[in-house]
Amino acid sequence: MAMIVILAYDVAADSRRTRLAAALESWGYRIQESVFQLRLEEGELDEVRERVNDIIDSRDDVVHLYPLCTNCLGRAEVHGTAPALDDGGLYRGVW
Asked: Whole-model pTM?
């Protein structure tokens, strides 16, 4: 069963920030400049954690992971313009 995770980051170096964003795009879509919504299958959260830790410098960067339970996801609200989602929950546009 898939889970939704909100991932927010503050990465100091442009090169690391670019690599992290590119890696995250394979699991989800950008909802703000430094915030992604990821749709992960079982076991992929550990894969995301490993990839994040391979990219960031823990002395200068920070990444927050917020797994959303089904109830929380069902109560989520978006105000204003939101990206168009396909059936798989992935953004169809180009960022």
From this structure: 0.81
